[in-house]
Each structure stands twice: as C-alpha cells, then as structure tokens.
C-alpha cells in the first residue's frame, strides 16, 4: 500500500493501469484531451503488482484498474471518473494539473 500512496502523493494525477486494459486507455485519452498528462503506472509490469491491486481495493476503489488519483486523493475507477466528467466536476479537479496552452 505504501507504494500506491507514495506514487499518488508525489504526482498530481495518477492512473494505475494494466497494459491490456481498454478502459484504462480510455480514461488516459480523456485526461489527455482535457490537457492533463497523468502518470500512467502499469501495475502488470511491476513485480509488486498483485499487492498494489489489493492495496487499491483496500483504499476503496471498486475495481483495481483503472484507479485514478487526483491531488493524492482516490477518485475512483472508470464509472466514477466518467460520472465526474458528465456532471462537470472533473475539470475543476484537473485544472491545477492542466498544461498551459
């Protein structure tokens, strides 16, 4: 759990992902379209990936990937991120991390 919390706190926007996950890719593309370049951490490429999955679930995410942290706070998986976006609440959360145009 320490590795997950450390990565989430050291980076503005983090997506814990798996390289074969199409929903992870969709969330990543959404963030890029919104001007944010998140850290995408492929847990299936990490020897500690299984433990990281368990840690993400213990933190309250309903699915191990994608698990999205914004400003060090777990915001959820695909459903929660899409709900935030559709309600207009995602962009204000991302504003501090958007690239300057």
Question: Could you explain the architecture of this structure?
Answer:
The chain has 101 residues and is an alpha+beta fold. It is 46% helix and 17% strand. It is built from five helices and four strands, in the order αβαβαββαα. It has helices at 2-10, 22-33, 49-58, 78-87, 90-94; strands at residues 13-17, 39-42, 67-70, 73-76. It has a four-stranded mixed sheet, with helices on both faces. It starts with a helix and ends in a 7-residue tail after the last helix. The model has no long low-confidence stretch (mean pLDDT 95).
Element layout with pairings:
Blueprint: H1 2-10, E1 13-17, H2 22-33, E2 39-42, H3 49-58, E3 67-70, E4 73-76, H4 78-87, H5 90-94
Parallel strand pairs: 1-2
Antiparallel strand pairs: 1-3, 3-4
Quick tags:
5 helices, alpha+beta, 101 residues, globular
């Amino acid at each position: 759990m320490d590795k997950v919390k450390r990565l989430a706190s050291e980076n503005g926007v983090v997506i814990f992902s798996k390289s074969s996950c199409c929903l992870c890719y969709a969330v990543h593309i959404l963030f890029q379209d919104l001007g944010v370049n998140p850290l995408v951490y492929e847990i299936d490429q990490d020897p500690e990936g299984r433990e990281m999955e368990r840690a993400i679930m213990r933190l309250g995410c309903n699915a191990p990937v994608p698990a999205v942290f914004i400003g060090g706070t777990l915001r959820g998986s695909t459903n929660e991120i899409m709900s935030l976006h559709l309600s207009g609440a995602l962009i204000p959360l991302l504003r501090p991390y958007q690239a300057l145009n």
